Structures are given as structure tokens and as C-alpha cells.
């Protein structure tokens, strides 16, 4: 199987799992509005960040094209542990496992028996794949454009301060202090919407969950 097909298939998953990374591992103080003052939405986000060291959840994900047509629906489960460790398992429609082990980011296509690996050090703080994986102060990389409440949920819209990122905005919805919805818009106006269920904050996670060893016979693309 050629690496181009592999890259196209993993590209879809990259933006999707990366969106979740925004929620719990960017560390430190709240993001700020354009005027430099803390916003109420920033406080909601900050409260969550300050009290979360690990998290697990199930998810349902929809991807919508720029033409507003549904491209794909996926389901799976995720876990993360601060700092620099997360596990993201797409169960359908294409089984894909994404693991950050503290050093590298692994993206494994089970059907194709291929894995790409990228050092975490090569990813900037505003890269979607790094938003939950470090202890960088969130406000160094993002502004809060809007913060509002709808039907008992608190919503925060973040935009990257620097250009050249893979996305133009991230919208997070909290209910009862827990993340329930996330929406990512990329540079091509493709939208990824994720709904979380069975969210558990600060679970005791097995360290082996964040370890990845390519199975025998797996093609590895990239460098550790």
C-alpha cells in the first residue's frame, strides 16, 4: 500500500483527535480576550485545566465538508494524562490508534498495518496535536474570541494567535464543568464536531496505555 493513501487516511484522524487535545493538557493561566483581560469563558476553561491531570471519555465524531455535507462519522474512546501522554482509539469506520508517549506521536492504521511517528518536540504549542500534551500557558498561543452560555452549557471559542496552524478556530462546550462538545474548523473550512460521553476526570490510568510498540510486520513512516 502506498504511503500517499496512508497519509490521506491519517490526515482525517489527525485533526480529529488533535481537537480533543485542547481540553486538558495545555497548562497554566486562562486564555485572554483580545483586550488582554481575562474573560468569564477563560475562567471556565482555566478552572478545568487547573484541576485535571488525567481524563477519559467515549466520543462520537462528525466531519463536515466546506459544502456543509457530512463526510464521515466515527466513534471511539480516548484517554490522556498530563504531561505529554494521550491515547486516542478510533474504532469505526477506520480503526486507528493515536498515542503520545511523552516523546513521540504515533498514528497507527490497523487495517493497513502502517504507523507514522513524529517527535513531539517538532510540534509547536499552537499545533492541534500539542494543545493537550504539554504545560505551556494557553494564552501564549490563543485568544478567546467569544465566551457565552446556551441551555446551561458554557462555550468558549479560541483562535490561534499565530498563522500557519492547521485550524482557524476551536469551540469548546462545557456542562457541569466537564467537556461535552468540541468543534474544530480547519483552514479549508472543514469542520470536525465531537460529542463526549461517559467523561471521567482524573482516573487512575495504566501507564502502559501510553506506550506504543509497532506490531511485527508494521511499516513505520518517519523517525523516532
Topology:
Layout: H1 3-21, E1 32-33, H2 40-51, E2 54-64, E3 70-81, E4 85-92, E5 96-101, E6 104-109, E7 114-119, E8 142-150, E9 153-160, E10 167-175, E11 178-186, E12 191-201, E13 219-222
Parallel strand pairs: 1-8, 7-13
Antiparallel strand pairs: 2-3, 2-12, 3-4, 4-5, 5-6, 6-7, 8-9, 9-10, 10-11, 11-12
C-alpha end-to-end distance: 22 Å
What is the ordering of alpha helices and beta strands? Answer: HEHEEEEEEEEEEEE
The CATH superfamily turns out to be Lipoprotein localisation LolA/LolB/LppX
CATH topology: outer membrane lipoprotein receptor (LolB), chain A
Overall domain count: 1
- Shape designation: globular
Question: Quick one: CATH class?
Answer: Mainly Beta
Radius of gyration over alpha carbons?
A: 17 Å
Parts with pLDDT < 50 across at least 5 consecutive residues: 1-20, 22-31, 35-39
- Counting helices, strands and paired strands, the structural category is mainly beta
Strand content bin: over 45%
